[in-house]
Amino acid sequence: MAMVAELRDELTTNEKLDVPEELGCKQSSDSPALRRESDPPDGGRVAWATALGSFLIQICGYGYLTSFGVYQDFYTRIYLTNQPPSTISVRWIGSLNSFLIASSTLISGLMYDRGWFYHIMIVGSLLQSLSLFALSFAKPGQFYMIFLLQGVLSGVGMGLTFGPSMAVLSQHFSKRRTLVMTLVASGSPMGAIIHPIMLNHLLNGPVGFAGGVRASAGLVSALLLIACLSMRTRAPSTPMASVSYSAVARKCSREVPFILTTVGIMLCQIGFYYPLFYLQLDSIKHGIDAHFSFYSLVILNAACAVGRCTAGIIAAYTGLLNLTIAFTAASGIVTISMIALSDISSVVVIAVAYGYVSGVYDAALVPLVTVLTPDLSELGARMGICFVFTALDGLLSGPISGALLSSQYRWLIPSLFSGERFAYYTNGNTVLKERFNCHSPAPSKHWQLQQLSAQLWNGHPFKNMLFID
């Protein structure tokens, strides 16, 4: 600990410390990091058009995934009545979709780093669009067709577009990067407002499943087309072989902040989707008006949009790590409080509270990974490594929640189990904060935390006590 404190003091007094302008610290005018960070224009027509395209990708990606609660309710009550809720989860429709969105970043991230941005955006968009149109031809009881189209193909398509659409923002923004990333991330709850309203009226109305899914697929396809036409890269879009997962993985295995962040997110994802997938069904099963229950996810995601939009503003004062600790703990508390759901007022309170706190938590994840990335040319690969591990728990979240819920709809156990997962991430971030003495709310402390890892990586004699060889 004395060596860590000594090294930390050395970093804070070092006049040549490369702290990016985004975190509000001074730099030497001849710093290589300054020249690299000052390259993005931090605005302009192309930059904001790219941000708009990324925003639309989030509407069609995680925005569509988080509306799976509508499908979950429809499949359970009407379309797949031969499958109990635990079986639907165990067979991995929603959870497999979530897993593939995150794990596909392992592929798309490396392809982005090698200059294949436009290729993967087009392929991913086409795959998502075609799989949704094909889903409309599924008949009642055809579980495996729905599983393949919605769980597998649609998930891969969303995953190919998610990572690159967020990483490309780092080419256009530096000082505003965290703010823009959190604003773009608000596209997910915005999509989760639009899609549930549309799907609830279409699936449960005269249009039916086939027509409703086709209309939804048409909207998604149009938005994806606009997104692909809007986004542009600043780096040369020619294939490059300079980035390899083996080299990036070796660096990541020696960086304690990155390891703790990845493990924490991975543990947290088990409980993250439980309210999103089961709030509407929970409301209906408690005798609440079905028409109002249809809007429970809309209320949740409206609050989530507000949370994501304000996350960047709050982080400017508290720092990303402090922000993540506070709102992760709050997300766990609200998830556990789902055991108290009994009437309309409780549904509204839970939806608003969880929507906001989970929105802030989720919006901070990508900026946190970006801040912990010393070389932005490796950002795609690092996002892929981080999210492929977190996807494993996302894969288990639906099956575990469905199994704990059982066909008797016992809400106590899955609520407690899911809420407890957030506690692990909170504890992990607290350890990270205490380990590196990041007590100041100033964001620059988080960059010092990154620089500490870089110093240890470069051969500090104390490194073997902190990092994995």
Layout of secondary structure:
Blueprint: H1 2-13, H2 32-38, H3 45-60, H4 62-65, H5 68-79, H6 85-90, H7 94-103, H8 105-113, H9 117-135, H10 143-167, H11 177-185, H12 187-203, H13 208-230, H14 245-252, H15 256-272, H16 274-285, H17 290-294, H18 296-318, H19 320-336, H20 344-363, H21 365-371, H22 379-405, H23 412-435, H24 444-457
Description:
There is one protein chain. The N terminus and C terminus are likely disordered. The longest helix is centred in the C-terminal third of the chain and has 27 residues. The radius of gyration is 22 Å and the shape is globular. With 469 residues, the protein is mostly helical. The protein is built from 24 helices and no strands.
Share in β-strands: under 5%
Element pattern in H and E: HHHHHHHHHHHHHHHHHHHHHHHH
- Principal-axes geometry comes out as globular
Which spans have pLDDT < 50 for at least 5 consecutive residues?
1-38, 237-241, 437-469
Q: If helices are DSSP runs of H or I spanning 4 or more residues, what is the number of helices?
A: 24
Distance between the termini: 20 Å
What portion of residues is helical? over 70%
- The pLDDT mean sits at 76
Sheet with the most strands, sense and barrel status? none
